[in-house]
Amino acid sequence: MIAVLSGGTGTPKLLRGLKELTDFVVIVNTAEDIWISGNKVCPDIDAVLYTLAGIIDDERWWGIKGDSFRTHEMLLKLGYDEFMAIGDLDRAIHIFRSELLRKGYTLTEATRALRRALKVEQEVLPMCDDDVETRVVTDVGDLHFQEFWVKHKGKPKVFDVYFRGIEKAKATRDVLRALKNAELVLIGPSNPITSIMPIILVKGVKEVLKVKRVVAISPIVGKSPVSGPAGKFMRAKGYEVSPLGVADVYLEFLDVLVVDDADRHLVGKYKSIEIVATNTIMKTVEDSKRLAEFVLSL
Ligand code: GDP
Fold first, then answer.
1. Model pTM?
2. Domain spanning 2-33+122-132+166-297, CATH class
3. Lowest CB count within 10 Å: 43, 125, 129, 156, which one?
């Protein structure tokens, strides 16, 4: 069994291919979660669930393919400022989850109920059941990740990123079991700062990673991310925006870093990490499968 650590875009792209090749369990970042219009939105969990259920909008890598936004549009018409565009079907998922949470389910239990309802075979585990919130310190204030990325379109200058509540976050029994049973821990090409770092900082996770074989795929090609704000966040945290910067984020426990062919000159040893190269750009399901095959062959 493989344990995959995931955010909401790069790693789900990989899961699309991996699911055709092997069994795995996914441990997902929850620090970008937010309550919107009365419901709990878990962007990364939802992207993973929708991908595994085959219903992800694979143009945007969020939301459900072909969804409508009538409820969202009506809310705006009523003068209610819903700053994230929530699709109608997407909202049904959030209602299902939030009702379970209101009844006292943990996020792990609510996610399990959801993935069963969506007929997803693979276990999808929130990184923890505690509230953790990624905050971005910017020139326009201290923002929730979603305010920075959605409301302000990722434009503000970033001075720092921190995870509110992380000191109290403990790995769940399910996460620890999944990691301990895994013959390989795979960190997909996700944002190292806002998607993977929160998972690693959950109490109990890093200790297990240190004794496991850990392989990561770089979300940075050359000097920039394939998409999204990873570059701004890495710089703010003092890391170089490059595959080597990614290696430095994971230095304490990483065994192998997969970089893109464009960075083939990095192949070899970097500190304690072995660097290998292949084409890591996933535009189609075939690309995802080819990259997943490469990782499994290591
Ligand atoms: P988020 O939760 O939406 O931020 O999603 P993730 O953290 O899972 O993924 C975002 C990261 O995926 C970005 O840093 C991108 O550079 C990376 N990414 C997206 N598509 C690809 C791809 O096809 N190949 C690689 N190597 N990285 C990708």
1. 0.98
2. alpha beta
3. 156
